[in-house]
Design a protein that fits this description.
Layout (H helix, E strand, L loop, with lengths): L7 H6 L6 E5 L2 E4 H16 L10 E5 L3 H12 L4 E5 L4 H10 L3 E4 L7 E6 L5 E5 L12 E6 L9 E5 H15 L6 E3 L7 H13 L2 E3 L8 H9 L4 E4 L1 H9 L12 E4 L6 H13 L3 E6 L9 E3 L13 E2 L4 E6 L7 E6 L6 E3 L14 E10 L5 E6 L3 E4 L2 E4 H11 L2 E7 L5 E7 L5 H12 L6 E6 L12 H5 L1
Length: 475
């Protein structure tokens, strides 16, 4: 890494060493100790027999000070790091098979085809592939690789640079007004771009990340929140939907000052539910929009304007720009385009593609359809790839889900069977009339009721990042 390039490690190293960086059950880790530990990781990585070369390091992790220090150590050593779920999900196995990484970092255990090379100062085991595949060196600008949520389940990684990471972290810290007084409860996994953005933005601001070992569903989570005087909570839509069913009230948390939501669209009724509650509690509620391809964040709705802009994804983050581009061959549809320093280099689908350079040059075609109002606030109206063709009509599946969820106490996932049939998977939140739902949905879409096939399920499958898992429903 060139001395002129700033990394998340550099931003964290600039803070007073005596200030707290991470709080977990084992104790408090101060910035000085975190940086020293990360430097130790970097030295260990580069002192292995093959450490003089840049190799992708695949890190299986969950949120902890050891995992964060290992991640920062990879950045400090300028060794590309890929963050994966420590539980080694099916997606993780697909990624390993596709990329055959030369280096894997595990907290414990072993991995077939790999041998132990060294133990890092954080306790993570560095495993090297016994029979490494030949592959070109990763591009010099790659700092981080993240999985992207898709409906196909195909192994694909997003290639991100140090500039992407620092630009997005500093932008988020700016519009949220983060300072060293902030204490964020780590409610999302660090291998997920939203969860990692919490860590990165708080490291950039000199703030504190509090590792909460409990599920947000449990009272222990909120006891831990209060005991450590946490000031913010971040959640994806299903978390806020669940909290509403549990009758969560922000006013019960005296130190809570900020709630943020991303990771998919939160239905308008839930936004309307939380907006006055957070205001009454003296807190702020930020609805945000982003994609892993833009490191994490693309836009946000200022908290003081949320009540007037329900349903909007807001305005571009500081340093970014949103526009719309008309799509040829469509009836006036426009795709949302984002430009900014946080746009990825491109995708990687194999170890060979890690050598590719910047394929996007700062411009991201989001794949989302949208419009903008007279105040410059953007709205998502659908997804390019989430359409069905029913009886010659182009049906927006996102709209179908939104309509059903707005009118019935369900969580819905709509899929096209390809035979003029719409499959509608329904997770029941309260009693409702299934026949009426089917009839009214068919009438709204202008198709025969028999073409809608409802499938009640105990719970919709979710990805590790808390989004509807369409691939699992199609399996």
């Amino acid at each position: 890494m060139s001395p002129s390039i700033t990394s998340i490690f550099d931003l964290a190293a600039a803070h007073p060493p005596h200030e707290p960086a991470i709080i977990e059950d084992a104790g408090t880790v101060f910035y000085g100790a975190l940086i020293a530990l990360s430097r130790g990781v970097a030295e260990a990585l580069n002192s292995t027999p093959a450490g003089a070369t840049r190799r992708p390091h695949f890190l299986f992790c969950s949120s902890s000070s050891a995992a964060i220090a290992t991640y920062l150590g990879c950045l400090a050593a300028n060794q590309p790091v890929c963050l994966l779920d420590e539980s080694r999900t099916v997606q993780s196995h697909r990624i390993l098979n596709a990329f055959a990484p030369p280096v894997v970092l595990l907290r414990e255990g072993s991995l077939e085809g790999y041998r132990h090379a060294t133990t890092l100062p954080t306790g993570f085991q560095l495993l090297e592939r016994i029979d490494p595949r030949e592959a070109p060196a990763p591009h010099a600008d790659i700092a981080l690789l993240l999985t992207t949520s898709g409906s196909t389940g195909d192994p694909k990684l997003v290639r991100l640079t140090h500039r992407n990471l620092t630009a997005n972290a500093q932008s988020i810290a700016q519009y949220l007004g983060l300072s060293s007084a902030e204490r964020s409860t780590q409610s999302l996994p660090m291998y997920y771009s939203y969860g990692l953005s919490l860590i990165n933005s708080h490291l950039a601001a000199g703030a504190v990340t509090v590792i909460n070992p409990h599920s947000f569903l449990r009272p222990d989570f909120w006891t831990h929140f209060r005991d450590h005087r946490c000031t913010s909570f971040a959640g994806v839509p299903h978390m806020y939907e669940t909290l509403k069913r549990l009758r969560f009230d922000p006013a019960t948390q005296p130190t809570l000052r900020t709630l943020t939501q991303a990771g998919g669209k939160l239905s308008d009724p839930f936004i309307q539910h939380y907006t006055p509650l957070t205001r009454a509690a003296g807190a702020r509620f930020f609805v945000m929009y982003g994609q892993t391809e833009a490191t994490a964040r693309i836009s946000y709705v200022p908290a003081d304007q949320l009540a007037d802009k329900v349903g909007s994804i807001g305005v571009a983050i500081p340093g970014g720009e949103l526009t719309l581009e008309a799509l040829e061959g469509t009836d006036g549809m426009q795709e949302l385009i984002y430009r900014g320093p946080n746009v990825m280099l491109g995708y990687a689908e194999s170890s060979a593609s890690l050598a590719l350079g910047d394929e996007l040059t700062g411009k991201l075609r989001t794949g989302d359809l949208g419009h903008v109002d007279s105040d410059g606030f953007y709205y998502i109206t659908g997804r390019l790839k989430r359409f069905a063709k029913l009886f010659g009509k182009r049906v927006n599946l996102v709209d179908v889900e939104t309509m059903v969820e707005a009118n019935y106490p369900v969580r819905a996932a709509a899929l096209d069977s390809g035979r003029d049939t719409l499959m509608l998977f329904l997770e029941t939140l309260a009693e409702f009339d299934l026949h009426a739902l089917t009839q009214e949905t068919a009438r709204a879409l202008g198709i025969p009721p028999s073409s809608i096939k409802p499938h009640p399920v105990a719970a919709l499958p979710m990805t590790g990042s808390g989004k509807k898992d369409y691939a699992a429903l199609q399996a």
